[in-house]
Amino acid sequence: MLRLFRVLERLRACSEFSARNRHWTKVTELSVRLYSTKAAPQFRRMDYQDAVCTLNTLQTNASALEQVKRERGHPELQLQAMRGFLQRAGLKVDELDRLNIIHVTGTKGKGSTCAFTEQILRNYGFRTGFYSSPHLVQVRERIRINGQPIGKELFTKYFWQVYCRLEETKDAHGGSMPAYFRFLTILAFHIFLQEKVDLAVFEVGIGGAYDCTNIIRRSWVCGISSLGIDHTSILGDTIEKIAWQKGGIFKPGVPAFTVKQPDGPMKVLQERAEEIGCSLSVCPDLEEYQSEGSLRLGLAGHHQRSNASLALQLSHTWLQRHFLTDPVSSSPVEFSGVSPAPAFQPSPAMIKGLAETEWPGRNQTLKHGPVTYFLDGAHTTRSMQACVRWFNEIAPQHERNAGGPVMRVLLFNATGERDCAAMLKLLVPCLFDFAVFCPNITEAIATCNADQQNFNVSVENMLTRCLDNQQSWRVLNGQEEKPGAELLIGGGLPLVPERQSHTLVFPCILSALQWISQGRDSVLSDPNRCVIPVKPSINAKADPLREAVNIHVLITGSLHLVGGALKHLDPALNS
């Protein structure tokens, strides 16, 4: 196992050095060219990968993240710092008012809610901006214009405009530069202003009150999706504490909506609305809206129904304000208790928007010949419950039409402080024939795309987490670990377990997908792809995969894992 750690660390170090060295070479070449913050510097020689490699230097390393957590005693300083960075980038907070922002937070479903909302308003003919996180394959997915990730050329152009303004002013500010997410938030503000969007939908990163998106002075409407336990070291260890953070996006006089919440967090949201001075309405069930027949959703899963209802309320409220003759002077809506939101009749544009919404990596199904992939980035126990419900509904539908034996395979990883054992316990009843674990490394080669690089966690820690997850799965399935078992592949490199259980650990996502598909997925069978050799005894374990009529693969536990898988499974996302 130690040898695997060392091999992966060498690969990672090579990739990291290549990315950072490439960046600093370019920066050195251009360091003599300084620009006023009033100007918009152009660097046409710098391509998209240069921009992404430079962006990656702003990733906070693991030790710095721990320091941030220790300094949470004064979280208000985070927004103060954000205002300073925004100003250094040549932007003013009051300029953000021109973006007519819809601001959305929550623990589960906030991204899907934003996707529904953006699609609805785009159907009305508005030019939309949409900022979300994390990205799945390429970082520019986080910043969308009219539903599409901003093009590489525009991303590169605007990236250097903002980066160089911050770079040239850092010496006067103690050498400080914004961290990765802060920078991307500033970049999104800049792009949406430059591209003159009619509105911008902003998904909160973490929490709400002190999230850097909350630098917004006055949104047009804000929403809260389903609340649960996540990011406890930052937001608090109870759902009530988390609700307090989420309610921090409320603004005086700005209407707020929430999906139905448990009594505890709902009471906190009510108190926050009263304290801040805004209305708070609870969304009705989707079945209550006045429509002919049931509303069809473009996103699968029963849990998407509450997200769709919230999106209807957000878009409806935004439209009401937009079509006022003088929306700027419209009367603010003050707190008068929590009230039910009206179940109005959705317009044709709304109905069409809900049906056409796409949001990759969430309850997504990809069929590649005999191999079908079910992808969902669930990473909390509540979202995993929803994922399991969706998988148990959709997988049997595919299996009934298979005409022969079907193998079920779980590909799992989780990051951060997530309770992996709790999520795995929810997955046990799905009766997987194989459970495969790998870190969120797209492929174990040094030429990995810069969009997929993450310097926040060591490879050793990632692999240790995979081995822990493997052991948890064995325990949950009543399997005893075989003492002294080795992890071996051909050539002596540790890789997968030589034991009689159906659990395996791979060093990267590509190697896991290649083993699972056994050459039966033409997308993964590209002769130009590197294939890691596996011992014959391990290949023998895959006989059921080769003999099955179909292979069904659930990929879950992390959006980063899902994104890494999509990089290989959907080549169009790489263009």
Automatic annotation (TrEMBL):
Q: Which UniProt keywords apply?
A: ATP-binding, Cytoplasm, Ligase, Magnesium, Membrane, Metal-binding, Mitochondrion, Mitochondrion inner membrane, Nucleotide-binding, One-carbon metabolism
Q: Name the needed cofactors.
A: a monovalent cation
State which pathway it belongs to. Answer: Cofactor biosynthesis; tetrahydrofolylpolyglutamate biosynthesis
A Gene Ontology MF term for this entry?
tetrahydrofolylpolyglutamate synthase activity
Q: How is the cofactor bound?
A: A monovalent cation.
Catalytic reactions on record: (6S)-5,6,7,8-tetrahydrofolyl-(gamma-L-Glu)(n) + L-glutamate + ATP = (6S)-5,6,7,8-tetrahydrofolyl-(gamma-L-Glu)(n+1) + ADP + phosphate + H(+)
> Where found?
Cytoplasm; Mitochondrion inner membrane; Mitochondrion matrix
GO annotation, cellular component aspect: cytosol; mitochondrial inner membrane; mitochondrial matrix
**Name of the top EC class for this enzyme:** ligase
- Check the record and name the PANTHER family matching this protein: FOLYLPOLYGLUTAMATE SYNTHASE, MITOCHONDRIAL (PTHR11136:SF5), FOLYLPOLYGLUTAMATE SYNTHASE-RELATED (PTHR11136)
According to its UniProt record, which protein family does this protein belong to? Answer: Belongs to the folylpolyglutamate synthase family.
The entry's function note states: Catalyzes conversion of folates to polyglutamate derivatives allowing concentration of folate compounds in the cell and the intracellular retention of these cofactors, which are important substrates for most of the folate-dependent enzymes that are involved in one-carbon transfer reactions involved in purine, pyrimidine and amino acid synthesis.
Q: What is this protein called?
A: Folylpolyglutamate synthase
